[in-house]
Design a protein that fits this description.
With 756 residues, the protein is an alpha/beta fold. The chain has five domains: 1-160, Beta-Lactamase (2-Layer Sandwich), CATH 3.30.450; 172-189 and 324-418, Phosphohistidine domain (Glucose Oxidase, domain 1, 3-Layer(bba) Sandwich), CATH 3.50.30; 195-313, Enzyme I, Chain A, domain 2, CATH 1.10.274.10; 427-454 and 649-755, TIM Barrel (Alpha-Beta Barrel); 460-625, Phosphoenolpyruvate-binding domains (TIM Barrel). It has an eight-stranded mixed sheet. Strands 21-20-19-18-17-16-15-22 form an eight-stranded parallel sheet.
Length: 756
């Protein structure tokens, strides 16, 4: 039976046409089980019916499709119970409902198994026998296994739109991940890279000097391209977003890709081959990371590599005729791709790969362009010559939407623009509730920063500066001087405002390219402070660089990641003091005059830290909650694993209860506490956090003014009622519904759904 099952499933997967695949499958199942009929019904959730998609044996008199209403008949019973039904004589079963104008009356024995994908019933497999008999355990196991295998096939067919036809109205849209809020309508514009690394055939060369010269010329042309793209984007996006192109330039430096490629050329490889090998190595390292922000850097590395390859191959970028308003669709939308197209014409973005942390998503948010990311198993050509409607709030993409949907989207788009204008007009005001409760809004930064933009942005400082990227984009540790220069650039932008710099948070799930680690469970492994304390030479150099960068300034704050015990805090403090006095002596600084002892903070991201707060309070100056990792550890969910990602939810009652407890304990201990995870920039999440007592929230630049406006339109009493209801809720859905209803009642619904 196993071999037969494998053959049937393999045939379904390889079939060029989905309907043909199902029709072939039901015939093969009928033959394998030596039964009289096999049928597949697929759920039409809009019409609330199960529709027969294929059958060998069951038919209507006029050849039309058979439909069974939800809640009626044995088919619906199998779906409701979410388990197989093995019935000797279906005609005598109390749930049986005769299918009118069909030949169903000739059958007695019935075996029905639900087709379930990610807890959702997609359809039913039904096998009939003309004689009254119960199917054997082996036959039942066969059908249940087939249904489980078929679930993935149908889910993919659903995503690809293969179920859509003039007679099957249940599929109208695709669902991805929300990348940038907003709604948009437009014709699909499919973009593909001019050169692809995966198409390069490895070849050797006996002219290394010639190949190195070609590579350097290609890099020079790429640098010129990037400068032009950056110039073109200036004034259209905030300068901190524009700094993405500085990161791209940094990837081309000798310390990043340059030396590695040239060394491989010297070993006898052509420039194209060396570039392919080095870039793919970098891409693999980034894609293996669990940190979603750093993981997305793989797209940037691949993009810059393919731009260099284009010049190595002497290709010119093809200029295509663009529609007046279009939805940009690509396998991976990149920052450079966005910069090359006229911004006024880009209505929306669909990136088949990527997440909310990709540079494309960051740029889309800063440009105010709706974006949907991460649509599984769709080919680019599927979108060609299609009219699209994009909802960046829900991740919904409508394919060739009907007139009524288009009309609704046009109205929502107008309301969106009105709301943006209102938020922008109030960006200069303080973030405080209507009854005067003040909240400090800070930035999360992981890129270079630009002076002009930061001077115009109404923020209170940097709540989290990630120091990992400079370490990861090199083939060796950055020197103390290099680190000092990087940190100095950030500190100088905020001379009168605090800058919280997190010490190196790598290891385990974020290995350095030159510090490879192999662990069975990297999330629970050698990472963060665990790694740097085991390598004090790395930790001390970074701390010394931070201190040197802070000479003459008093705004440096140091944050320790992945802390689980007071002993880690004690050892870190000892090393920081050692570095402090070393720098003071070497630089001739006067302690406490032009070199200040930085405040020390601890990240609360491991649940154990919650119960160590009293013990750690006397050793540190502040706490910072990393809500992303805290959620992940509390719920034991890898949010980058699609099989369980739906379980990752910062609105889970346990997560909110933990955040509430942290806020109360820190208040009792007299220690300031902030939140620097994604929840802080989420409109509903920000309201709940302020209600809990958090007075410092750190987020990306896009959300700063949105959160400010929301806070200025609520009272503390309203927030307290919302929090009380949230803490009593039993599941995240109840909490989201409550927040949405409350924000609607306050006239703030446009921050959680499309429209104003």
């Amino acid at each position: 039976m196993l071999v037969t099952l494998q053959r049937i499933v393999e045939g379904v997967n390889k079939a060029p046409d989905f309907n043909m695949a199902l029709n072939t499958m039901v015939g093969q199942v009928r033959e394998a089980l030596e039964t009289d009929s096999c049928s597949v019904f697929i759920a039409d959730n809009e019409q609330r019916q199960f529709v027969m998609a294929a059958s060998d044996g069951l038919r209507t008199e006029d050849g039309s499709s058979i439909r069974v209403d939800f809640g009626e008949g044995i088919i619906s019973l199998a779906a409701q119970r979410e388990e197989p039904l093995n019935i000797a004589d279906a005609s005598q079963h109390p749930a049986n409902k005769k299918l009118v104008d069909t030949n169903e009356n000739i059958y007695r024995g019935l075996l029905a198994a639900p087709i379930i994908h990610r807890r959702k019933v997609l359809g039913i497999v039904v096998v009939h026998q003309s004689v009254a008999r119960q199917f054997t355990r082996e036959e039942e196991a066969f059908i249940v296994t087939l249904a489980a295998q078929l679930a993935v096939v149908i889910a993919h067919a659903d995503a690809k739109g293969l179920l859509m036809s003039d007679h099957s109205p249940w599929i109208h849209s695709l669902r991805g991940l929300p990348g940038s809020p907003g709604v948009a309508i437009g014709e699909a514009y499919v973009s593909r890279p001019e050169a692809r690394l995966d198409e390069v055939t490895p070849k050797r060369s006996d002219k290394p000097v010639h190949e190195i010269r070609k590579f350097r010329q290609a890099v020079a042309r790429t640098r010129a391209d990037l400068k032009e793209l950056s110039r073109r984007m200036a004034g259209q996006v905030p300068d901190d977003t524009l700094a993405i192109f500085d990161v791209y330039q940094g990837m081309l430096d000798a310390a990043s890709l340059g030396d590695a490629v040239e060394n491989m050329i010297k070993e006898g490889w052509r420039a194209q081959t060396a570039l392919k090998y080095v870039v793919e190595q970098f891409v693999s390292q980034f894609e293996a990371l669990e940190d979603s922000y750093l993981k997305e850097r793989a797209t940037d590395v691949r993009d810059i590599g393919q731009r260099v390859l284009m010049h190595l191959q002497n290709r010119q970028r093809q200029r295509k005729l663009l529609p007046d308003s279009f939805i940009l669709v690509a396998d991976e939308v990149t920052a450079s791709m966005l910069a090359e197209l006229p911004q006024a014409h880009i209505a929306g973005i669909i990136s088949l790969n990527g997440s909310s942390n990709s540079h494309a998503a960051i740029m889309a948010r800063s440009m105010g362009i709706p974006a949907v990311l991460g649509i599984d198993d769709i080919d680019l050509h599927f979108f060609s010559d299609r009219q699209l409607a994009v909802d960046g709030y829900t991740g919904e993409v409508y394919i060739d939407p009907p007139p009524q949907v288009l009309s609704q989207f046009h109205q929502l788009a107008e309301e969106e623009q009105e709301l943006k204008d209102i938020v922008s007009e109030h960006s200069h005001l303080p973030a405080e509730t209507q009854d005067g409760q003040r909240v400090s809004l800070h930035l999360n930064l992981g890129l270079d920063v630009a002076h002009d933009y930061l001077q115009s942005l109404n923020i209170d400082g940097v709540g989290l500066y990630r120091s990992e990227i400079p370490f990861m984009m090199r083939d060796q540790l950055p020197t103390e001087d290099e680190q000092t220069e990087m940190y100095q650039e950030v500190l100088e932008q905020f001379p009168d405002r605090p800058v919280v710099m997190r010490t190196l948070d790598v290891g385990g799930d974020k290995p350095l390219p030159y510090f490879p680690l192999q662990e069975d469970n990297p999330f629970l492994g050698w990472r963060g402070i665990r790694l740097t304390l085991d390598h004090p030479e790395i930790f001390l150099i970074q701390i010394r660089a931070m201190l040197r960068a802070s000479i003459g300034k008093s705004n440096l704050r140091i944050l320790l990641p992945m802390i689980t015990s007071t002993s880690e805090v004690d050892e870190s403090s000892r090393l920081i003091k050692q570095a402090y006095f070393e720098v003071a002596e070497e630089q001739g600084c006067e302690v406490g005059v032009n070199l200040f002892q930085p405040q020390l903070g601890v990240m609360i991201e491991v649940p154990a830290a919650i119960y160590q707060l009293p013990a750690m309070a006397s050793k540190v100056d502040f706490f910072s909650v990393g809500s992303n990792d805290l959620t992940q550890y509390l719920l034991a969910v890898d949010r980058n694993n699609r099989r369980v990602a739906s379980l990752y939810d910062a609105y889970h009652p346990a997560v909110l209860a933990s955040l509430d407890e942290i806020a109360r304990r820190c208040e009792e201990l007299g220690k300031p506490v902030s939140v620097c995870g994604e929840l802080a920039g989420d409109p509903g999440g920000a309201l709940l956090l302020v209600a809990m007592g958090y007075r410092q929230l750190s987020m990306n630049s896009y959300n700063v003014d949105r959160v400010r406006w929301i806070l200025r339109n609520v009272r503390s009493s309203t927030l307290n009622v919302m929090l009380a209801k949230a803490l009593q809720a039993r599941n995240p859905e109840q909490i989201r519904s409550m927040i949405a209803d409350k924000m609607e009642s306050m006239g703030l619904g446009g921050f959680v759904r499309a429209g104003k």
